[in-house]
Every structure is written in C-alpha cells, then in structure tokens.
Specification:
With about 190 residues, the protein is of the alpha/beta class. It folds into two domains: about 1-100, CRISPR-associated endonuclease Cas1, N-terminal domain (Ribosomal Protein L15, Chain: K, domain 2); about 115-190, CRISPR-associated endonuclease Cas1, C-terminal domain (Four Helix Bundle (Hemerythrin (Met), subunit A)). It contains six helices and eight strands, in the order E-E-E-E-E-E-H-E-E-H-H-H-H-H. It has a four-stranded mixed sheet, covered by helices on one side. A four-stranded mixed sheet has the order 4-3-2-6. Helix 3 (about 120-145) runs antiparallel to helix 5 and helix 5 packs antiparallel against helix 6 (about 175-190). The protein is extended and about 55 Å long.
Length: about 190
C-alpha cells in the first residue's frame, strides 16, 4: 500500500477525470480500480485511472467494495453518492480537494460559486448565456465545416435557420431552468 501515496502527486486542479457511473459495480482488483458492467454479451471490466481522477459520482444501481473505497481515499479521489442524473449529491467522502493545503484559494471563490448555484436567477442567467454561446458556436462551426455541408447540412438551410431562430427566441424568453431544458429538447428534436 506504500505505492498509493504517490497517487496524490497530481494536484486536483490538474486532474482531468470526473466519472458518473450508473448500474455497475466498482471494485479494486490487482491494484487497480475497475467498474463492472453486464449486458447480453457478458461482463465488461473498465479501468478507472485514479491518479488522474478528481471525482467519482455513483448513481442509481451502483455498488462499491470497501477495498475500492480504501484505495480511492488513499489516492485522494472524492467519492459521491447521488440520485438520478448526477444530482443531488447525497453523501461524499474525502473533501480535501475543496481546500487543498498545497494550493491556496481564497474562501470567497467557494462562497461565490455556492451563491451562484443556489440563486435561481443567477443560475438561469448562466444557463441562458451558455445556450446563446452554443447557438453562436453552431453558426460559426457550421459555416466552416466542409464535412457537414457535404452531408447536406447548411447553416443557411431554411429549416435549420428557423429552428435556430426559434431556439434563440425561446432562450431569451424562458423564465425557469425547466423551461430552458424543454426549449433545448425541442431544438434538438427539430435539428435532427
């Protein structure tokens, strides 16, 4: 178990992976963390690179062994148990990643993030901004992408243009995150 202390060498701000797992079993095997899924063809094992992982969220229908939790804790990986869709977070372990001793961040950062999340109007405003940026990205990337035009997708196509305009209008008018998600779903269906 001595070799596991090296796994914390990568700072959490430099780690790249966050896993959300559903309907599987997380276990430790041969010094590695794996998750097992089952389908009609049989069992599949998938490796989780814990030295480069910040968070593992365990969703509905997931179990984890004690050996896996021990190894994840030694590697400094946050383990969270959550409901469907990745939220809400019901319980978490190893929260040192929030205030690491080797890279100080002022408390105001966390307070700002939390106040943003729990303020419905700020959260809606941010969601609208993300959707507006998405629309801009779609317009720019579709104009430049030759593979899309060769497949018959053109940004100046009447149906696509109309769908984008309607989506933009709905994004501007919605009054709740739920309505924004509905507008996004309608746009995705129209775009297909």
């Amino acid at each position: 178990m001595e070799q596991l202390t090296d796994l914390k060498a990568i700072l959490h701000s430099k780690r790249a992976n966050l896993y959300y797992l559903e309907k599987c079993r997380v276990m430790q095997k041969d010094g590695r963390i794996l998750y097992l899924t089952e389908d009609k063809q049989g069992k599949n094992y998938w490796n989780i690179p814990i030295a480069n992982t910040t968070v593992i969220l365990l969703g509905v229908g997931t179990s984890i062994t004690q050996a896996a939790v021990r190894m994840l804790a030694q590697a400094g990986v946050l383990v969270g148990f959550c409901g469907g869709g990745g939220t809400p977070l019901l319980m978490a372990n190893e929260v040192e990643w929030m205030t690491p001793q080797n890279e100080y961040r002022p408390t105001e950062y966390l307070q700002g993030w939390l106040s943003f999340w729990f303020d419905d109007s700020k959260r809606l405003s941010a969601a609208k901004k993300l959707q507006q940026l998405r629309i801009e990205f779609l317009n720019k990337s579709w104009e430049k992408d030759s593979s899309l035009s060769s497949a018959g997708f053109y940004v100046d196509d009447c149906d696509i243009e109309l769908a984008l305009q309607r989506f933009q209008k709905k994004v501007d008018e919605v009054s709740s995150v739920r309505h924004l998600l509905t507008a996004e779903a309608e746009f995705a269906k129209k775009s297909v």
